[in-house]
Amino acid sequence: MTNFHEEQRFHRGLVGVLLAVMIFVAAVAVGAIVIGRPDDAWLLAIAPVMVAIVAALIALSHLDVAVTDDGVRIAFRYIWPTRRIRFADIAGVAVRRYRPLLEYGGWGVRLGPAGWAYTAGGGEGVQLRLRKGIPVLIGSKSPRELEAAIRAGMESLGRP
């Protein structure tokens, strides 16, 4: 049974920036061909394709967080493998504000000085302190509900 479920997508502005970069690089490639440097153009022609692939992956991907009877499931669809954290492995849980760029180097799946972060945007989430291993931050638009669901799962094991 799912006690909490949330899906978050990356900010559409990020996809727009990637598409703008793709158009700029494509224009430079066309310019290289026009001014007579086709040997350099093939490299520039590949760049928009690579940017388009990255933009498509970001546009399609989303952060999927679920709290079930078994624990917490965190997945970044199409980008990163699913991570499962059992309630028995969680020593503490707290809602907190965070600074994605300063603490983790951005959004997505990140490993920073404060631990692992799974974020798609915003600046609020739930910090999990694990019995073994590096702490995990889960970005959420509903951090209090996520925390409550995790606490309820921990309590079902006889842990506060």
Question: Can you describe what's shown?
Answer:
There is one protein chain. The chain has 160 residues and is of the alpha+beta class. Helices cover 41% and strands 34% of the residues. The protein has 4 helices and 9 strands; from the N terminus they run βααββββαββββα. Strands 5-8-9-7-6 form a 5-stranded mixed sheet. The chain has a 4-stranded antiparallel sheet with strand order 1-2-3-4, with helices on one face. The longest helix has 23 residues, at 12-34. The model has no long low-confidence stretch (mean pLDDT 84).
| Strand order, largest beta sheet | 5-8-9-7-6
Fraction in helix:
40-55%
Structural class label: alpha+beta
* Total number of beta strands: 9
What is the first-to-last residue Cα distance? Answer: 21 Å
Which of globular, elongated, flat, extended, rod-shaped describes the shape? elongated
Number of helices: 4
What's the main sheet like?
5 strands, mixed
Radius of gyration: 20 Å
Oligomer: single chain
Outline the low-pLDDT stretches: none
User: What's the order of the H and E elements?
Assistant: EHHEEEEHEEEEH
| Beta-strand share of residues | 25-35%
